[in-house]
Amino acid sequence: MYRAKTTRYSRMKYRRAGRSGLLMPELSLGIWHNWGLYSDYDVMKDMIFTAFDNGITHIDAANNYGPPPGSAEENLGKILSCELAGYRDELLISTKAGYEMWPGPYGNWGGRKYLMASLDRSLERLHLDYVDIFYHHRPDPDTPLEETVGALADMVRSGKTIYVGFSNYPAELLWKATAMMEETYSIHPVLDQVRYSIVDRHIEEDGLLQTVADLGMSVSVFSPLAQGLLTDKYLKGDIPENSRAKENRFLKEETITSQLVARLNVLNEIAETRGETLSEMAISFILRRPEVATVIIGARNSEQIRANLNALGKSREFSDEEIGEITGLF
Predict the structure, then answer these.
(1) pLDDT digits over 233-288, tens only?
(2) Per-residue pLDDT tens for 73-90?
(3) CA 69, CA 4: separation in Å to the nearest integer?
C-alpha cells in the first residue's frame, strides 16, 4: 500500500485561484490521451505517486480522455480508490465536459442533459462522491449560455462539485458567463483553463488575462511546453520515436521545420544563460504571470514530472531584455 512522503509539502508553492479560498499547486498533473485502455497501469500509478510526493495535489482530467473516451478517468479512479483513498481530502480532482463523449444528440457541447449526465458518469468512473472543480470544456455556439451556466450552478448546489470553471472561453464570453452565474446564482467561477506557452501567447494579446484579473478569477494553463516543442527533443531537428510529432496527431511532423528548429535553439541559448533547461524556462515564463494559478503538465513517466519540478527551484525573474528576446522569436 502506498504511503505518501512526509516531506510532500516542503517544496511546492501554492497560488490562490482568483478571489476564492482555493489554493492550487504551481504545477498540476494532467491526465490526457496517454492514460487510455492500453496504457501501462504501473507507469500511471507511479506518476501519480511521484506527483503527490512532491506536492502536486491537483490532477486534471476530462470525460473524453483516453482512448477510448472515459478510460483515463477509469484508470485514475482505480488509483484513487485503491491507493489514495486515505488522501482524498489532500487532493484536488478536476474534470471537464464539452467535447463528444457518446453517440447521438445528447453527448456533446453544453446542453444541460449532457453536462449533468457527464458529471454523473465521471463520478462513477472516478469512484468519487464529488470533484473539486468541474469545467465546461468549450463554448457551445448553439445552446443558450443561461442553460450551460444554470447546469454548472446546479452541480455546485447538488454537492457534486465544489468549484466550477470554464475552459477555452474567450474574454467577452467569459465575462458574460461569470456575471450571469454571480448575479443569478451567487456562485463565483474560479478558473478559465486555457492553452498558453512561449510559442502561443494569444491570451496575452486578446485581453483574456486582464479579463480574468478583473473578474477575480485565475487561469489554469495547459500545453505549457507546446506538445513537447519547448523541450530538448527537437533541438537537433530530428523526430524522436515516442514523441508527439512522431505520433502525428496533435503535433504534426511537418511542423518541425529547419526554421522552427533554429528559433528553438535560440530559445535554448537564452535558457542556458539563465541556468535553466528549455522546458524549465518555458514553465518559468508562464509562472511569471500573477493571473496564472497553476500550470498543468502532461507527462509520459515520472522522470518527466521530476524534470518539470526542477523549474520551481531554478526560476528567477525575467529581465525586460529576456522578455523581448523571447517574444521576438514567436
Answers:
(1) 999 877 776 666 556 566 667 788 999 999 999 999 999 999 999 999 999 999 99
(2) 999 999 999 999 999 999
(3) 30
Cell of 103: 453517440
Domains detected in the chain: 14-228+279-315 (3.20.20.100)
Mean pLDDT of 297-322: 91
Predicted TM-score (pTM) of this structure: 0.95
For range 190-217, the mean pLDDT: 97
Name the phi and psi angles at 315, rounded to 5: -65, 145
pLDDT value at 213 more than 70: yes
> Per residue in 204-242, is it b (16+ CB within 10 Å) or e — as a string?
eeeebbebbeebebbbbbbbbbbbbbbbebbeeeeeeee
Predicted confidence at residue 243, as pLDDT, reads 60
Distance CA 207, CA 148 (A): 23
3-state secondary structure string, the chain? Answer: CCCCCCCCCCCCCEEECCCCCCEEECEEEECCCCCCCCCCHHHHHHHHHHHHHCCCCEEECCCCCCCCCCHHHHHHHHHHHHHCHHHHHHCEEEEEECCCCCCCCCCCCCCHHHHHHHHHHHHHHHCCCCEEEEEECCCCCCCCHHHHHHHHHHHHHHCCEEEEEEECCCHHHHHHHHHHHHHHHCCCCCEEEEECECCECHHHHCCHHHHHHHHCCEEEEECCCHHHCCCCCCCCCCCCCCCHHHHCCCCCHHHCCHHHHHHHHHHHHHHHHCCCCHHHHHHHHHHCCCCEEEEEECCCCHHHHHHHHHHHHHCCCCCHHHHHHHHHHC
Asked if 62 and 95 touch (Cβ cutoff 8 Å), the reply is yes
User: How much is the CA Rg of the chain, to the nearest whole Å?
Assistant: 19
Determine which of 93-97, 183-187, 232-236, 292-296 has the lowest per-residue pLDDT on average. Answer: 232-236
